[in-house]
Amino acid sequence: MAEQSDGDGGDPLLFLWIAVPAFFAQNLGQVKRSCPEDRRPVVLQFDGVHKRFGSLSALDGCTFEARPGRLTGFLGPNGAGKTTAMRAVFGLLQLDEGLVTWRGSPIVEADRARFGYMPEERGLYPRMRVREQLVYLGELCGRTSSEVSRVTDLWLERLGIAERAAARVDELSHGNQQRVQLLAALVNEPDLLVLDEPFAGLDPIAMGSMAGLLQELAATGVTVLFSSHQLDLVEDLCQDVVIIDHGRVVLAGELEALRAATPQRIVDIHYRGPAPAWASVPHVRVLESTLGSVRLEVSRDTEIAALVSATTAAEEVTSFTYQPPTLSDLFTGAVRT
Ligand SMILES: Nc1ncnc2c1ncn2[C@@H]1O[C@H](COP(=O)(O)OP(=O)(O)OP(=O)(O)O)[C@@H](O)[C@H]1O
């Protein structure tokens, strides 16, 4: 696998990883994924991946997987190694150790013809017209012009930007440029979609439509891995999460299972009147307390009756919720400060 870019700067034509193989066209027949006798695991797998930049370990034995038909949130603080890992999927950097595999085999260019990538650098040609650019990019993946035109028109319509098809990319709003960028990752009808912060900078409405779209794609069996710093959104959207810190995976798996497996439970109470003495209840820790609301941490085995009994001292209780830690709580607990 050739190292194409290891530089720090943004490469505006980044997704030219798909550009080289015009010869994909004649090879695509060999990469059909629906072969029923093929029982290899249909996952994207990172296995002990190391990537160093000089003395800095950007990926330090990174191991995780993303599964088909599911949304996997790829989380971590700034500089944790998310973009580096995503670039590794596309052969945009040379790994020092470890393997990234797709369906159980090291990824080759023919696999990448069926992958979609939305890079952090957002590499569209700013002066090229939207539809023309999308068709061009789809053709670079080895698709015929009519195939790619059909998919492009479908998605332009679906994303509500069909009327801007003839506009230049740099004439579009940020949100619409982001939609076109996503579309550029979809024109080859990918089996795997890797998105670097697809929600960054979107307004709430655009976020909702992007979220809905990713759910729809996952529902059709696409493997979707995306990075984000918006933990509430990831919690609402993703079945699986991978949390990475200093190049190492510190927590990974099915979100609900990870939440349920924690020994802590979080109790949020909203009330009127003076604050009851919750801290006096055994095994209760006050995490936050403001006038009229309190957040408590209890153990999974704490006797809730004692807590409820203490709460009745409030003038009125307007809400009482008891739940496992949120994704944000898990993230804070997992990541080194
Ligand atoms: N080409 C490079 N040369 C040198 N260092 C690099 C290079 N690319 C990434 N790094 C470093 O590797 C580490 C991981 O960077 P990366 O961009 O993967 O993190 P990230 O998790 O995507 O961060 P963010 O959330 O801020 O986007 C950082 O310390 C970064 O400075």
TrEMBL record:
- List the protein's name: ATP-binding cassette domain-containing protein
**Family of the protein in this entry:** Belongs to the ABC transporter superfamily.
Q: Which organism is it from?
A: Nocardioides islandensis
Kindly list the GO molecular function terms attached to this UniProt entry: ATP binding; ATP hydrolysis activity
Taken from the record, one Pfam family name reads DrrA1-3_C
- Which Gene3D superfamilies does the entry mention? P-loop containing nucleotide triphosphate hydrolases
Q: Supply the InterPro entries for this chain.
A: AAA+_ATPase, ABC_transporter-like_ATP-bd, ABC_transporter-like_CS, DrrA1/2-like_C, P-loop_NTPase
> Is this entry keyworded Nucleotide-binding?
yes
Q: What keywords are assigned to this protein? A: ATP-binding, Nucleotide-binding, Transport
**Which chain regions cross the lipid bilayer?**
none
UniProt domain ABC transporter: residue ranges: 44-271
Specify whether Cytoplasm is a keyword of the entry: no
